[in-house]
Amino acid sequence: MIHILTPDVYNRIAAGEVVDRPYSVVKELVENAVDAGANEITVEIEGGGKTRIRISDNGCGIARDDLPRVYLPHATSKLQSADELFGIRTLGFRGEAVASIASVSKMNVVSRTKDAEAFSLGCEGGAAGEILPAAGDCGTVITVDDLFYNTPARLKFLKSDAQEESDVTNMMARFILSCPEIRFTYYVNGKVRYRSFGDGLAAAIANVYGAGIIENCYEICADKHGICLRGFIGNQNFTKANRSYQSLFVNGRYVVNQTVSAAIMNAYASYLMKRQYPFYVLFLDLPPEIVDVNVHPNKADVRFADNQIIYGSVYSVVSAVLDGNSRALEYLVREEKGTEEKSVPAAETAASVERPIAPAVKPMSYEEAKKQVAFDLTPVKNQSAPQFLAPEDSPVWKVRQPDREEKEDVFAENQRFLREKSVQEKIEPDTLAYKGELFRTYLIYETGDNVYLIDQHAAHERLIYNRLKKSVEERAVVSQPMLAPYVITLNAQEFAFLIKQLPVLQEMGFDAEDFGGTSIRISAVPAELKDISLGKFFGEILGSMETLRAVKLTDILKDKLASAACKAAVKGGECLTEREARALIEEAEGDMGLRCPHGRPAAVKIKRAELEKLFKRIV
User: Which of 296, 383, 391, 409 has the fewest Cβ atoms surrounding its Cβ within 10 A?
Assistant: First the structure.
């Protein structure tokens, strides 16, 4: 028998597609506020968004007579006919989100239009209440309480409050970047996490990523093949350890798109070190009819009418700027002063200039654009990093992902070696006679019929590492206060990752704490590592952030501490006194099976018989 589903059932099914997490609720409601013409939006969340989400805006508001329609499925003010799907200029358009959210929460809408009174309408589990008079300014306030309270299976599979909060925070950072003309205030459990002032893209980037970012970027604005590419890209020497510093907005909508990503990675190919990624905040504005945003309910992906035109346009602009060829002058943002043009640093550029969502220039035909793209891509075939390119007949050039072997954890490799090594040769230190050194790197010890060559750096490195490891296990770490605290400014994803690991960092000997916004302050470090570079130390951890989520941070930190121990250890080429050489072997307790934390042997044994064979004393 075929059953017709009731609204409470199909709305809950739709909710699984549209609003599966708190961040998606925030996304849909903020997009509605932007579409309503708001220039000031406040977002508040509690309990990672599970307990409460409140979105306030000063947009056009909702008329009293329209309030009941708010909770109806497929009710929208943004389009009326199917033809309009091919020219969408708003962020929302399906009319599914509010009905879906209301079906799985306790929701209330308070709204007021210009020259009218404010009214409110509540809805619990999809059942709307009565319209009541309310107090409020022009605009709309939407409150969502107890998300998924009536769908315990969905509630059970939500992530921790901290992780849900992290994803909402990351989404808010994207909104600040995508709508730099809007003033955003974002509260987490009553504390301000982000506050922007609607004063342009450069200020928005500084707000999200820190004030030092802009001075390392180029600001570009290019009209090419009927599309406009604008925003900021990192210079040739400015890279990041992970991809979380990359933002692409297509007609104002944040998307993740392989075609554009591949074009940018290929443009940077000759400038990137291993496991380094470019920084960019880019807007791709193009006629709505050549991009399909109606691909998936979350609207996080788009489909282009012709990927090669998009790829070629992005690649040619970015590579021209990075390579410094003559065409770069057309793409870099410049200011006019008198009759002369003057290039200015991105930090000084007025970034609040409004530009249309769709460029005013008439798009080329596909035939014309393809011919031009073929010309622009000529340098691609001769570039020095062909490993990024797929076959030429591929409609989308994709970036080759690093091999898993490249991500191999050195500490794990060393652990495997230690497990395989069944016995370690130990000798009483008193029986070892110090005989001198070779090349100021290798210490010579004699005992019985054996000679041991000790790599002073590898041995010392291992001993430092062992002390650190023991201190961590016994929780007897001694911290060294810093004269001036070190403040790390992170993006939302990195902040959420590190803030969760603060207890582990503190056990390791770091005095680390939340410093407000998305910053962490380090006031003390393990005494053994007082000379380490904190920037590089945390950069290495964050560089593998995506692969570390399933690994114990203590193991990862041991690997990073091993690298720091390497830097703290005595170096090859440094001359040790006999007393220092003796102290080194005594601390090692005569362990001749030592290896440095990266697996390199610290001691090599040469038997007397082997030497005599070399000199033909014996056969």
Answer: 391
